[in-house]
Specification:
Length: 296
């Protein structure tokens, strides 16, 4: 009799455990479905966007470096302690991005910095606010990369909805060893790659979302994570892009020059002024830097 009661007890415990397990799995699948809902909706929006196409827009991306200013930045940040002259461009890019990510977390700053270049932003982080947003991250990393002779741009990545004020700003670096661009995000401490580890550009990320091809996101710091929200966030902010036509130091100190916006055909973007040039020509927008870094 006693043995029968014990067996019955274990059966009851087993049934309860199975019930709890089923509920947990079921709940997890519901949550997974909820988290995938905005991702799927945003991917469909990308798929329904107009195609890119060649146009006659007058634009010419150039990559310039003031050698005196570059030396000042290298000395100020002691970049020689971060870089390996014999390493591939991507390894040095990761070293600089990790330096920025490790020292400056993301936040929407309360006090705007008066000067938006690398040294001023570092002083701002030391003495005013310890963290700042993606655009300031990208400006800081842009100048560190440029001072290290790494061709790069900082690119604003925008949604289709003009009422959505949230966009994202990251850097793209030219990898001469692979003859391609690669995205790096010190603000959200991540980069994108193929399943076999090849870093992806913004254009490749957009194409992979549309085609349903895999993208693996990797953490710059700490342990890897599932990046579920980050994956959906990118699907929203790959609709169109804008960046400076000419790179250089202090781009957002004097705000001199033009910006170029890459738009899907038939999409008007948001409002543009005379120094903002819209184009649908993805080939020229993402073109390789033909003449490399022009030192002055």
């Amino acid at each position: 009799m006693k043995k029968t009661v014990v067996i019955a007890g274990w059966i009851v415990v087993g049934i309860l455990l199975l019930f709890v397990l089923v509920r947990v799995v079921f709940r997890a699948r519901i949550e997974e479905g909820r988290s995938n809902a905005p991702l799927q909706k945003r991917v469909e929006l990308l798929r329904s966007a107009g195609s890119y196409g060649a146009d006659s827009t007058d634009l010419c991306f150039t990559y310039t470096q003031d050698t005196l200013r570059a030396r000042e930045i290298r000395t100020y940040f002691r970049l020689d302690t971060l870089l390996d002259p014999s390493a591939p461009t991507w390894e040095n890019t990761l070293a600089l991005a990790r330096f920025v990510a490790r020292n400056i977390p993301h936040a929407n700053q309360q006090v705007q910095p008066q000067t938006r270049n690398s040294t001023a932003l570092w002083e701002y982080h030391l003495h005013t606010e310890p963290a700042f947003n993606c655009r300031l991250h990208a400006i800081l990393l842009h100048e560190l990369l440029l001072a290290s002779d790494i061709v790069n741009r900082f690119v604003t990545c925008l949604p289709a909805d003009s009422l959505d004020s949230d966009c994202h700003v990251v850097n793209i670096v030219w990898l001469p060893e692979r003859e391609k661009w690669a995205m790096i995000d010190s603000d959200q401490q991540a980069y994108a790659a193929t399943p076999d580890g090849v870093p992806l550009s913004l254009a490749e990320m957009r194409s992979r979302y549309i085609a349903g091809e895999p993208i693996e996101y990797h953490a710059l710091l700490g342990e890897e994570e599932d990046f579920g929200d980050y994956r959906a966030y990118w699907a929203k902010n790959l609709y169109w892009f804008e960046c400076w036509e000419q790179t250089g130091f202090d781009k957002e100190v004097g705000f001199e020059g033009r910006t170029v916006a890459l738009l899907p055909a038939g999409y008007g973007g948001f409002s543009f002024n005379r120094n903002e040039i819209p184009t649908t020509d993805a080939h020229r927008f993402w073109a390789a830097p033909a003449n490399g870094l022009q030192k002055q």
